[in-house]
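User: quick one - fold this with flavin-adenine dinucleotide bound?
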Amino acid sequence: MKPGRVLIIGAGLAGSLLAVYLARAGWKVELVERRADPRARRLAVGRSINLAISARGLKALRRAGLEDTVLKDAIRMRGRTIHPVAGETHFHPYSSDPTLAINSVSRSALNLTLLDAAAAEPNVTLAFEERCTGVDPTRAEATFVHDPMGTTRTVTADLIVGTDGAYSAARAALQKSERFDYSQDFLGHGYKELTIPPVTVGPYAPFAMEPNALHIWPRGESMMIALPNPDGSFTCTLFWRHDGDGSSFAAIRTAADATTHFQSVYPDAVPMMPTLGEDFERNPVGTMVTVRCNPWVRGCVALLGDAAHAIVPFYGQGANASFEDCESLLDALTHESTIDAALARYQRDRIANANAIADMAKYNFVEMRDLAGRASFQRRKKVEQFLHRMAPERFTPLYDLVSFSTVPYTEAKARGAANVRAVSTAITLFVIAIIVAVMILAVLLARFALGLGAP
Ligand SMILES: Cc1cc2nc3c(=O)[nH]c(=O)nc-3n(C[C@H](O)[C@H](O)[C@H](O)COP(=O)(O)OP(=O)(O)OC[C@H]3O[C@@H](n4cnc5c(N)ncnc54)[C@H](O)[C@@H]3O)c2cc1C
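Assistant: Sure. Structure tokens for the protein plus flavin-adenine dinucleotide:
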């Protein structure tokens, strides 16, 4: 297909990467963003918020020549360090292959890297502080309000891609069209970001704890996690219920209550969090939503990234999946001869996979906040890793399939379900083998005791 003009709505992670891809494929790209240009204040030091990028995201970044730039400032996390209420922390590797790790990267630095790469393409025009207010697939146009001035403009294009995030205006417009399936499902838990600052002394200085791990304080119904930053700090995220008693944002509101609660629930974290009370009071509570819709395409308008499939963050896959979407759309536009055919191919490739990772992400919350702290679960993980070491072609744990491979999410989910059965069978066979061995030993001992000798 001859590349034409594409309008990309939203210069977040997915929109910026897509702009790079399509510009290099010969498209004339207009990338329009609601916020002010973040490049203007790149030196302003703000709170560091990070996310985990793994195999899928790295593959997509590599295709844009950006993998090394992103990994330069990334911190590798090889597994989970579990912090119980009392007692020692314990480390659980993500994979039986010790070379595999997920990467903690700064979200704003990643966005800047992608935006810089888009801006460097001669085919890309960038516009900021312009908020999309709607798209019209029948007229192939989108409308924008320039927020500082209140002026509006309409942009037409051969292809319009809504990459405007979980609360997408592009998707909202499509929702009004016929036979557009849509669901949004808010989690009863919210999240709040806190911080562990760098330290000057200690075994991991400037880090207050082991840096090459994702730290988890699993507490059944709730949890806290911490990811390392290159400056030696950790960004902590508290996942608590919105309502109810105990660990909930409704029950605990003040700095004093937060400090008291932390002392009993996350006691080892408190000495590392000197600004806990003020951070707790100042930082907002975020909501977490799963958005599913179908179709993702109407006429020449397509949804991509969180606009098409917002998922809860517990598998660390939202951005990774969005980057995979970008690859899928690029491939479809490269291989098909019309935009219609390309968009049909793109959504055929991606919708089932997005639904699969949405399901797995929800399940992983239970795993992280509750199961990860249990000995029985840790034993199962060890069995999984043992089976993987013994028969790597036949058995790959689900975490490896999702985070360290690029097999489709649908395949990962199906193989993960089969793994559960395989591990249960392995444990049952192991127990039977022990029982049989004990019985044989008992028979031998009995014969020996009765002076009959070996059979
Ligand atoms: C707490 C938390 C932790 C996470 N951790 C991870 C992780 O570890 N790993 C991972 O892979 N993912 C993670 N994610 C998910 C990840 O952040 C998203 O999946 C990813 O940002 C999606 O990229 P996007 O470009 O589709 O959307 P966004 O990054 O949200 O970008 C959307 C862009 O569109 C702009 N915009 C919005 N509305 C308009 C409008 N009307 N007009 C114009 N522009 C508009 C926004 O300003 C923004 O720049 C996490 C999410 C959360 C909430």
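One thing worth noting: The chain has three domains: 5-74+105-183+290-366, 185-287, 374-442.
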